[in-house]
Amino acid sequence: MIIQGNSIINKIDRNDDIIYVLLAGSTEISKIPGISAAGENSELTFLTPVLDSEIIYSGKCISYDVIPMTENGIPTPSIITRAANLVSGVDILIVDAGFYESPKIPYLHTKLGPANDPRKQEALTKYDVAVETGRYIGRMLDKKYKYIVLAESVPGGTTTAYMVLRSLGYDYMTSSSMKSGPDQLKRKVADEAFQRYKPVNNAMDSMIQYGDYMMALATGISGAVRNSTIMYAGGTQMACVYLLDKIINKSHEKRYIFTTGYIINDRGDLLSDIAGGNIIYAKTNFSGIQGLDYYEQGYVKEGTGFGAAFGIAYVINKNENLIYDEIKKVYNSFL
Amino acid sequence: MIIQGNSIINKIDRNDDIIYVLLAGSTEISKIPGISAAGENSELTFLTPVLDSEIIYSGKCISYDVIPMTENGIPTPSIITRAANLVSGVDILIVDAGFYESPKIPYLHTKLGPANDPRKQEALTKYDVAVETGRYIGRMLDKKYKYIVLAESVPGGTTTAYMVLRSLGYDYMTSSSMKSGPDQLKRKVADEAFQRYKPVNNAMDSMIQYGDYMMALATGISGAVRNSTIMYAGGTQMACVYLLDKIINKSHEKRYIFTTGYIINDRGDLLSDIAGGNIIYAKTNFSGIQGLDYYEQGYVKEGTGFGAAFGIAYVINKNENLIYDEIKKVYNSFL
């Protein structure tokens, strides 16, 4: 079994019914050295959402002639998502959740800009605009697609998620793009942010003070979606969004977390504490695929919703090898 | 009867089925003094698509604190479109068809940039990207909406349309945003462009040499739309797109021009020569509405698809006064 968790997945059979939405953007948090491995160095983490967007839309890095890998040679999960989406043939939409600069592909422009460093100031000074924009997107997608897959590319986002979760009383460590997550550093950053602004156990307030624009857009989208099912494609960041959505938008039917087996192994407790049985995950195996074999060692556990993208490609085509072959093809095109 | 032309209009009854898409952008052509009245002066015509987009999405000019009128005090038709769309409650999508600068609202970013002056060089150096982007948009909207309304905000666009039409053997004068169109100037501009590059009666070539990105996006969208009905919302510019679409995309079912009574009076011959019976128009009357009464004198005949927007609002609500009242409200909010 490649897909496990919840039987809702068996209802998916037509790619027409599905849109993959990438909420891509930056937070100043990713520039703290050691926080994120999503980029060759901490300054370059700001470009990762831009490059992920270009890879997922076009299969190429257009803005910069780089190989999209960490300094250790671990490729970005957007390669997997790109390949899986090609196989499943779903529609895709890239949304500006705080880009540092514009990717050179068609995307929904918002000009929110990177979220601020919550140790120094309120993270989301444009929170209201972000939620309103999310609602606009939600109204547009609702009913048009039975399944709206919301994925993220936000380096530093597991740290913002950690802060928001902890401020709301969920003192779990979040996952990381590293093999051994920088848990102590995350705690230190949170302590400093909480010193600036003491948590008040209010979801909206937490998001504004410590969060990122991906969260604000996602809760806005969910707030406007009345008929479609939303699948939060990701790990602990999306568990945080699931929780914010549950608190802020109250009614919480037709909302699922769709993740990877790596996340279930790493932070399954956090996910089930927040989402109960509304979790689906894809068990992938990248052993023997150059570069991606690092994933088997726990270096990357989620990102750009690759678990959901893989799972959906499998549910639609029932052919695992087809997906792995396409992943190798996309991966090799970068070498 | 407010709506006339083709009975297809009677099939429309649900706002869920309709999306209004604004293709907004610039061409260097609008900077030729005397070509366009869409802006307080010829330099400012570059801002009109930006402000029209902001008005249609938000009801406000955000980027600049201006009253969106020509130097004679004639308001932009986007005020009418905004009001009509509010009444009908259709989804709206703003698409960057060559913005000079980014509007401060959510929109589909393409970064095509303004089209070049065809007297000096090829107009659409990014033609392929524009068509590919159009196809992407078309695939996303197809089937999701029964009716896709494609409108434009392209100052100078009646001149590019004139050149493309004439190069394809349709030697009709196009409409204008002025009471008496600058027909002689348009002919002179075309003559100069044709001197640089002699027309070869090839639709794609004409668009690349003399056109604007609105045309390229629209034909790309139509090329990918197999199920939905497209309504080209506009006057002679949209008649030109209808023609390009017919030639380039061959099959031409479910394609209509949706315009105003002003255009039918002004250039009805051109429209029916190109689209035969596939024309719908809304007969509006702005007498007694301050500013908009200029429209009754023939100053503005189309723009931002206000004929279609008005017509659809009427078909859905069957209440003309409701629309006029909302138009007055939006108009007054700018004073």
From TrEMBL, chains A, B:
It comes from the Archaea. Gene3D superfamilies: 3.40.50.10210. GO terms for molecular function: nicotinate-nucleotide-dimethylbenzimidazole phosphoribosyltransferase activity. HAMAP family: UPF0284. Belongs to the UPF0284 family. This is UPF0284 protein AOG54_01855. The lineage of its organism: Archaea, Methanobacteriati, Thermoplasmatota, Thermoplasmata, Thermoplasmatales.
